[in-house]
Amino acid sequence: MGTWSQQQVKVLLIDNDEAHYVLIREMMAEIDGIEFQLDWVATYESAMDTIAPGRFDAYLIDYSLGGKHTGLDILKEAIDRGCTVPLILLTSYGNRALDLEAMRNGASDYLVKDQLTPALLERSIRYAIERKRSEAELQKAATQLEERISERTAEHAKTNTVLQEKLTELEHLREQIESSLERRTRQVETSTQVAQQIAAAPALDELFRLVVNLVQERFGYYHAHVYTLEGDYLVMQEGTGDAGRMMKEVGHKIPFNAARSLVAKAARSGEPVLVPDVTQDQRWLPNMLLAETLSELAVPIKLGNEILGVLDVQHNRINGLNLEDQILLMGLCGQIAVFINNQKLEMDRKAAEEAQQRLIEELNAFGHTVGHNLKDPVGLIIGYTGLLKEQARLPEDLQEYLNAIGRNAHRLNNIIEELQLLSGVRKENVELRPLNMIRIIAEVQQRLAYLIQEHNARVVVSEYWPMALGHAQWIEEVWANYISNAIKYGGKPPRVHLGATAQSDGMVRFWVRDNGPGLSKEDQRRLFTEFTRLNHVSLKGHGLGLSIVQRIIEKLGGEVGVYSDGVNGEGCVFSFTLPGIHKKEM
User: Fold this and answer.
1) Per-range mean pLDDT, top range of 125-129, 146-150, 179-183, 299-303
2) Predicted structure pTM score
3) In sequence order, what are the residues at sequence separation of 6 or more whose Cβ sits closer than 8 angstroms to the Cβ of residue 320?
4) Which terminus of the chain faces fewer neighbouring Cβ atoms within 10 Å, N or C?
């Protein structure tokens, strides 16, 4: 019989009514996913001739066959003949006593024909087949289990004899283990002391010297040396005794791909290599300076999967090194790897800081050079442009070109000033002094007069200005940036309000409010990032200003901020804070 997963089932119907055969065949045709092959016989004799092993997956047997035999007779006879295929009894009406008798005589299920549906038919056949299969598997497993029990019983009898022989051996082994544990305990205590001294090493060269000498002395090895992986070679960094000193002096190193080298093999495999008797191992590479070596252990120093080097120890007697030594040194090599990695990270950090400092100095020099070389020519362009506007009688289209030259010259001048300011903010440490904010704002308004006039802007300055500490030159740049942005991105025409508020934490909050379209929450979060423009769609600005403002204010001990509901006409409020001055401090 094929397995149910093959989706093909052969069924024999035993029923004296052909109409039932037609009905059941139609039901089976309605079942999706399973191909049923239905055969039909109508008599007891035909059924007995047909029931044979391997021909069908299931039998549907009608109880009423219309003769002297019933479906129960076929059921009993099939069971007596050793039939293992599911037998399902069909009845015309529910009869609990009949159903129970059928189940007692070996029926897998019983179905009432008047209640029969495709789903019920499919489920009954499937469950019956699967149940029979499970019973067969269980029977097979039980037989196998009995066989295994018999085998194990015989094995146990043999084992009992062997156990008696082993008891004596175990007692001897116990004594050896106790002796080994005492040695292991001493090793662990010594290993902890060695690890503590390794952790306190100030530098790599001192670490390597400590490692080889402490390992050799504390564990009684004949020799110890340590290698680091440098490109395609394992370079010996330190070794014990005269042999180690001489190898270090000549720059002893081993090719990473060396065929005859336990050190190279450990580095390539990333696993310890233990050779209890080197005279019997063809991988061993003799060293004339270490003529007494008889056993050797090479342990990789690795961090994760990265090989950093190898710790190699040697003994002057066969079996002088074992798995206990391997486990011990693996733990030490893990600590050595962490130390080496930390030292390299520290060296990388210092190198990065030095590179960053050089870059900052170069940027400052570049900013200074740019400002020095460009500021005068740009100033001349602005001056000559103004002179031409006042004295030359140019046509209207040329006059507009001249205005564009002037505007762009002012923008270029602002960029130069921002570069110079950024350079100064990076390197200068200024002393905070009381600020005359009214005077600073007046100077900024005069400086931005061309922009105010160009945009027909109105700037409203508050009469209340709490005293605060800062650096006047830098604060002037902050106000210039905030006010120019408020004019350029404000309403049409721009209306700009300036003010200040003393806060309970001792800081003073200075603010600029415009009447522009406002900013979304996302734009507000990105606003003080370098090269982010206020209107990144329509404005082609340089975008340094707000990031410089943030650097200035943070260096002066304050913070910047922006607030907007994103409502057109209500604009934005840009702010910065500075340490306030109480009257008793003045």
Assistant:
1) 299-303
2) 0.40
3) 221, 222, 276, 294, 295
4) C
